[in-house]
Amino acid sequence: MIVEICAYNIQSCLIAENAKADRIEFCANPTLGGTTPNLFALKYTLEKLNIPVFPIIRPRGGNFVFTAIELEQMEQDILFCKQIGCKGISTGIALQNNKLDIIKMKYFVSIAYPMQVSCHKVFDGVPDMYEATEGLIAAGVSRILTSGLAIDAVAGIDNIKNLIVKYDDKIIIMPGGGVRAANIDKLVSQTGAKEYHSSGIVTSDTNFIADENEIRNIKLRLH
Q1: Could you give the 3-state DSSP secondary structure of residue 53?
Q2: Longest dimension (CA), the chain
Q3: Residues 176 and 145 sit within 8 Å (Cβ to Cβ)
Q4: Buried (b) or exposed (e) across 182-196, using 16+ Cβ within 10 A?
Q5: N or C: which end of the chain has fewer CB within 10 A?
Q6: Residues 122-142: what's their mean pLDDT?
């Protein structure tokens, strides 16, 4: 099983790799829910790590309805990520009605290729999770990060399970949001997910540094 660690700084990236995490979602501004990291920091991190790094592509906090200028910025960031050798990205775009902008997601998938594209938790604001999932499958998205449209993955466990049962052979459904070693057994047994997303942060440390022992414990319970 795969453990993806959401890392808000280079130190957490290095901790995650040392703790045997399988992949990094790299982002900045944790208080805003994660935004595109500094691109020079991203390049430096790629040079230091051996595991895949998927930077989040999100130009600002707030909603996921982006202006034409913001979308152009996102496009340039995606191309930069591809140029420096990222294996994938995490992104998401919404319409005013909270449905996903599948047309733009499909375009981003096309310019990102051969990088994988994950849809981040913009998904948890959609009015119909089945319609959204089918749109992302059609767009060529590789995985969906979701807490099952709930406050966290445990609260949304039934929706996560239903998505996996229905779409497991078409797209990866990755539980995220409050995933910790203390609840990973429940998520595994009740959802059957093959990939899990966690920050690995277990304290209220304002530096947002991942905890190596927490990541190791998640990995241990999965294997």
Answers
A1: strand
A2: 45
A3: yes
A4: ebbeebbeebebebb
A5: C
A6: 98
Please, are residues 69 and 77 in contact by the beta-carbon 8 Å criterion? no
- Reading the block at residue 123, the tokens are 């998904």
pLDDT at residue 203 tops 90: no
pLDDT tens, position by position, 51-104: 999 999 999 999 999 999 999 999 999 999 999 999 999 999 999 999 999 999
Query: How would you list the strands of the sheet with 23-26, edge to edge?
Result: 172-175, 143-146, 116-119, 88-91, 53-57, 23-26, 2-7, 195-198
C-alpha distances out from residue 148 to 71, 122, 140, 142, Å: 26, 11, 21, 17
On whether the pTM is more than 0.85, the answer is yes
d(CA 198, CA 116): 19
Q: 40 and 17 in contact (C-beta within 8 Å)?
A: no
Alpha carbons within 13 A on the beta-carbon side of 194:
8
The string over 165-178, giving b where at least 16 C-beta atoms fall within 10 Å of a residue's C-beta and e elsewhere, is eebeeebbbbbbbb
Q: Map out the domains of the chain with their CATH numbers.
A: 2-222 (3.20.20.380)
Mean pLDDT of 194-213: 92
Spatial neighbors of 158 by CB under 8 A, at least 6 apart, are 148
Residue 70's CB: how many other CB atoms inside 10 A?
A: 14
